[in-house]
Amino acid sequence: MLDGQVFLGWLSLIVLLSSGPAAAYFGLTGNEPLTILPLTSETEGAAEKAHYKICDRLKLEKKQRRMCRRDPGVAETLMEAISMSAQECEYQFHFERWNCTLEGRYRASLLKQGFKETAFLYAISSAGLTHAMAKACSAGRMERCTCDEAPDLENREAWQWGGCGDNLKYSNKFVKEFLGKKSDRDLRARMDLHNTNVGIKVIKAGVKTTCKCHGVSGSCTVRTCWRQLSPFHEIGKQLKQKYETSLKVGSTTNEATGEGDISPAKKPISGHTDHIPRTTDLIYIDDSPNFCLMSKYSPGTFGRRCYKDKNCESICCGRGHNTQSKVVTRPCQCQVRWCCYVECKQCTQREEVYTCKD
Ligand SMILES: *[C@@H]1O[C@H](CO)[C@@H](O)[C@H](O)[C@H]1NC(C)=O
After folding, report:
1. Which residues pair with 214 in a beta bridge?
2. Name one GO biological process term (predicted).
């Protein structure tokens, strides 16, 4: 489903607004397609500054580029973050009309608007970066950070901090600096900043303390504990839920100056009437298209594979679906043989494949 060449092909700096300072955004919210893979080839030999090449290809803003270049671990982590966010987005939207099509021109048009989908892209991008950086620290891939440090001493008696925690503290600091603070003068800029912060918050809220027992035959006289992030799939799932319950906001402002606060949209939106957005809600300002037909935002759902009784009705937008019978061969009746391999039979099966009609 995923093609590395394609899905890593679109990132760069985005200049969303013509006014105010350039937006220091990153990840799936970049709007110029750019092929940044392959990562490894052609850099052999010049290994010392190999990461400079990655930093350049990422088309970062000046400050971001400086941060990228100062540590080879950063370049690697940025790549990891983009790839994680993209895979998770595609996974979460696999059954939806908008299936997280990230191909250049569709994404660029989408990012010009303040849709719920745009909100999701901002949140998953900042979440991906926060997650990848905290993990990179604890994995020892960074020069400027290592494991999470022990917190205050209050819990010392019960157990010790040990192991190697994911370094969210460093990661947060890095992400705040890396994404910068956008001008918050207009509603759209505030929407983006808000949704970026939602992504960071979800990572923070998912931190768990994990412990391990030590002592004679597992007597647990000593426990060591460390902080661990939720798996990124869990984060993706939560952000998808937030997408579904996202809130439309309007502005209490004067459109001319752009000054003012985010507030619920003036016209009540079904289900979410006068619900004031919290700092953990995703917010949007423009109603999304239905993504049924080809438009500048998506290729439409003609010919999309769908799953009967699950999403054909919804994603085919009432046009109905075609059914095709296919013969597929799969490994089956697998058994583990001593020692140590798995033996399977090949089973042939007829399967129905459904696709949306034109
Ligand atoms: C999304 O759907 C389009 C067809 O509408 C398809 O070409 C594309 O591969 C799908 N993308 C993903 C990530 O599944």
Report:
1. 222
2. canonical Wnt signaling pathway
CB atoms within 10 A of CB 103: 14
pLDDT tens digits along 158-193:
556 666 788 899 999 999 999 876 666 789 999 999
Q: How far apart are CA 196 and CA 275, in angstroms?
A: 20
Question: For residue 148, what are its two tokens?
Answer: 């999470």
* Residues 57-79 pLDDT 10s: 887 888 999 999 988 899 999 99
Torsion of CA 14, 288, 254, 193, to 10 degrees: -40
Amino acid type, 128? G
What does the DSSP 8-state code read for residue 47? G
Report the C-alpha gap between 291 and 298 in whole angstroms: 6
Question: What is the reported pTM?
Answer: 0.79
Counting ligand 1 atoms within 8 A of each CB, the residue from 99, 110, 305 with the most, and so the one to mutate, is 99
Tokens of 210: 């994990």
In ligand 1, the atom with minimum distance to the C-alpha of 300 is 5
Q: Which amino acid is at 309?
A: D
Max Cα distance, the chain (Å):
75
DSSP states of 142-197 as a string? -SS--SBPP--GGGTTT-EE-S-B--HHHHHHHHHHHH-----SSHHHHHHHHHHH
Beta bridge partners of 226: 210
Judge if the beta carbon of residue 304 lies within 6 A of ligand 1: yes
Residue type, 21: P
Long-range contacts from 218-225, C-beta under 8 angstroms, 24+ separation: 222/159, 222/160, 223/158, 223/159, 223/160, 224/159, 224/160, 224/161, 224/162, 224/163, 225/159, 225/160, 225/161, 225/162, 225/163
Residue reference for tokens 């998506």: 298
Beta carbon of 1 within 6 Å of any ligand 1 atom: yes
Tokens 């400027």 belong to residue = 144
| Burial grade of 267 (CB within 10 A; 0-12, 13-18, 19 or more) | exposed
